[in-house]
Amino acid sequence: MTAFLLQRAFTLALTLLAATVAIFLLLEVVPGDPALTMMGMNADPAAVEALREQLGLNAPLVERYLTWMADMLRGDFGTSYTYKTPVTELVLERLVVTLPLTIYALTLSTLIAIPAGIAAAARRNSPADLTIMGITQIGIAVPNFWFAMLLVILFASVLQMFQAGGFPGWDAGFWAAMKSLTLPAIALALPQAAILTRIMRSSLLDAMGEDYVRTARAKGLTRAQALRRHALRNALIPVLTIIGMQFSFLITGAIIIENVFFLPGLGRLVFQGVAQRDLIVVKSVIVLMVFAVVIVTLLVDMAYAIVDPRLREGRR
Length: 316
Hints:
The chain is an all-alpha fold and about 325 residues long. It comes from Albimonas pacifica.
């Protein structure tokens, strides 16, 4: 198991390095002069040149990349030109919104999808199965921002159970903060729950057709017992993959949802950074998101090793 995890950690480290190169190059080839965009088209040329020097835009490309990487490894993500605040402080302020929102949405998605997928697989081709699959098809087809607008209309405008947007802060109390995150979390969770339900059902049906399950049934276990004791654990392996991918999607998908609900999270920070051409903020936040995805992927691999004994024994 140790060798497997070390191998995966090395691979993910290379992935993170490649991602930093790609992010840096993509932002560098964007048309226009970042300094001129920040200061405006009528800015004094001397002031624009001073800003270019301050941002290090006059240095060679490789030197700028190496300097950026060295600063990040020291924990220095630079200072936002727009906010005049260290990026680290901005990220920490916004992370207390985005991270709970992502975990909330992922928890809702998992709590909905796994029981629904098991119920559909246990009652294959029954009316319950067909109903669940029909609902999941709708959930996959409809984008989450449309769900978000429907939720606002129903629960904020009509029923007035929740507010339409904004975040009161954790100082207002845990339940008040969680209440403001509920509609955004549901909007993020529903499409992902639909995908995860179908994966859970398909994986469980595949596992139920394996020889070891048929052997268990031949020894006297009922279908429900064979499903619970033997098929379910093996069926969770692809489900863990999807959950890890969903965490990544929820972080990036929060960019849209946070703007719909006016939440001061990382997604809204990236959106504002792009609009204001604040490259320091955009590069740093995107790299942090990629780092979070890499860490989650490593945790999923560890979960693989727990679920699948073959990985603990060092076999592929």
